[in-house]
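protein under study:
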Amino acid sequence: MAPSAILLSLWAIFGLLASHCQATDYVLYSNPTTKLLSGQSLSYDMTRHGIPGPASLVMQEDCNLVSYYKGEVVWASNTTGKALWCYLYVDELYHRAEIIGVPTESSGLPYKYNLLVWSNDGFIFGGDSVFILQWNGVLGLYGPSIWSSPNEGEIANSSISSEETTDYVIYSYSVLPIGLIAKYKNFQLVLEDSCNLILSRTDTGKVLWQSHKFSGSHDCFVTLDGNGELFVTHGNREILWRSETRSKNYGIYVLALRKDARLVIYGPQAWSSTMPRKHISSW
């Protein structure tokens, strides 16, 4: 069988063919599972908006996972040649980032054997998690999920270009004024002049979710605190609306506008590529 046919067969076995990333995605989810396949990359490039960069994460065909910032290597898994046709994903059971591959011929293991090549240190207990490429090339794992908007999932408009990076992840301690808060393709989260926080589709105008809290102050902000609670404040920083889900664990949390149009808060940060790296080999 030709190598390309073997590759397609193996990716079908692993369930990978329908779960690849878009060109400017920079988040992998544990649920639903998204994967970074061999030869694919994540990208974060907001340089045209004055943010330093760009950053990228490449799952190289030699099985080495490499993060770049301004074209320079900032982190690598150091797994070159450890397996074939490797991919990166967030394990739904252990909620940790893992590189899985097919054994090399020299290993003596069958092709159908799933080989764990690398994982981050530790794992998250319960709940969903996200793996994020940050603006500076640093990688982070956040979880579990502690809050989500109640709207039904939506399918993004596939005709919208993926050439431009948009911010759809908000971090703890961000303080964002009236205007656009997050955007993913044709989904956007906006803090209106009335201080109502509203999630909608840009193609149809359909409102997917909103806070239903209003203020005449015209001076309001969105913020995510160090315990993962989302707030809209107004006036003298009085609380107008809050998500009312608060973790006992203090740290860095993220609010993600997911590709299914749902807002989800994950955290705290469980791992970062600035921490000591870990290499796991099963032979």
